Amino acid sequence: MQQKFRMFLYIIRPIGIRVKICDYVNQNTAHSRGIDLSERTVLEMSVITKAGLLALAAVLLLPSAQTTQAAQPEPLIVIVQKRQDAQERTLRVLRDGSVEEAALDTYLAQVVLSEMPASFAPEALKAQAVAARTFACRQTAGGKHENADVCAQSACCQACLTVEDLRARYEDGFEAAWDKALAAVRETQNEVLTYEGALIDAVYFSCSGGSTEDAAAVWGTDVPYLRAVESPGEQDAAKYESRVCVTAETFTETLRALDASVQLSGDPGGWVQSVTRTPGGGVDTLTAGDRSFSGVQLRKAFGLNSTRFTLLYEDGAFSFDVLGYGHRVGMSQYGADAIARLGFDYKTILRFYYRGASIESMQTNFKRQSRTGNAPSPQAGESA
Q1: Residue 305 carries which DSSP code?
Q2: Are 262 and 256 in contact (CB under 8 A)?
């Protein structure tokens, strides 16, 4: 059903100020002069600020004697403030130990700018908005926090910087960035991702290094819509490639912290006995010193950007050459941008990374579904 709005028109004419309330605005009003204010800006104004602006505009538009004699069209300023009659959807956000209620659209715009650069293509930002909305709605239905729907921490839920922090990040480009993020949210209004009638775990991450990963390879639980897919075009990502080097002594200490029974002696070049790979090209298991270690274990223990790595011993040190950044399950943010720049829309992006998922309205009554195994937050602090 289409939402109804009430329009508050502040109309300034040379003889004074008149306020009119109506339910419809004729967009083709002739001889009008508008002040370009976003709805957000107007809503944030205090009553005194609005009154001052109106009074100033009235003074500036008072015609001179010559203008009056020339019988010019009467100048007109119209400021439109929209107020939604229906209650706006909100959610509770835990931030720095306090719970605050936020409008869903505002929260999502903050998440989009916190998780993805505003310089990304509009269709990539829309894909991010739908993924973030899906996560928020799933958490609202039953999440991690007792007195809040989500928190603002990327290591737990989704990153959600305050407007002040976003202003500091984007500086003079904040207004343009905010408008771009808010457009992505509103142009995907109410859209969420589902699978067989339930909201999906819309996990995402920065870049895959060429291929995403099966959920089962990372969290041990098979999820039909989280499959390994090729994800080319991510080479512009700052952390597409990385290297970590450790001495043989550090390598030994780290593996023994994981398994004290590991046997590492003799030539370090022979310590690594075998490596198996996941469907997405990550390390599934690595056998060293007659003990097996998972790629997930090694990534955490050695501080690697992802599990997609090769390990070499040369010049007295072990070198991990790593591709990608993040858990590599679900949507690659840099991959989404690459696909968008090829001309594909956000729905194509989402269906590419979340195989078999549907895009529906969040007005639907969805089935309850448990969270994906031991899956962390959508990106666990590893966003673009």
Answers
A1: S
A2: yes
Residue 127 is predicted with a pLDDT of 98
232: three-class secondary structure by DSSP:
coil
pLDDT tens per residue across span 279-308:
999 999 999 999 999 999 999 999 999 999
State the SS3 of 128-139.
HHHHHHHHHHHH
Buried b (16+ CB within 10 A) or exposed e, 366-383: beebeebeebbbbbeebb
Mean pLDDT of 203-207: 96
Q: How far is CA 382 from CA 153, 248, 302, 324, 332, in A?
A: 12, 28, 16, 10, 11
Q: How far is Cα 75 from Cα 13, in angstroms, rounded to an integer? A: 7
User: Which structure tokens are listed for 73?
Assistant: 């069209």
Comparison of pLDDT for 348 and 25, the residue scoring more: 348
CB 145 within 8 A of CB 68: no
Give the pLDDT confidence of 252-286 residue by residue, as tens digits. Answer: 999 999 999 999 999 999 999 999 999 999 999 99
**26: three-class secondary structure by DSSP:** coil
The CA distance from 372 to 202, in Å, is: 10
pLDDT at site 146: 85
H helix and E strand count, the chain = 12, 18
CA distance 384 to 293: 28
In this structure, what DSSP letter does residue 182 have?
H
Say if CB 157 and CB 380 are below 8 A apart: no
Residue 85 has a CB neighbour count (10 Å cut-off) of: 9
**Phi, psi of 55, deg, nearest 5:** -65, -40
Place of tokens 């809040």: 148
Sign of the C-alpha dihedral computed for residues 346, 348, 353 and 358 taken in this order: positive
The CA distance from 86 to 106, in Å, is 17
Sign for the pseudo-dihedral over CA of 166, 174, 35, 63: positive
- φ, ψ (nearest 5 deg) of residue 329: -110, 135
Identify any residues that bridge with 93 across adjacent strands, giving them in sequence order.
100, 150
pTM, to two decimals: 0.76
- 3-class DSSP assignment, residue 248: helix
The one-letter amino acid at 37: L
Enter the DSSP assignment of 162: -
DSSP string for 318-361: EEEEEE-BS---SEEHHHHHHHHHTT--HHHHHHHHSTT-EEEE
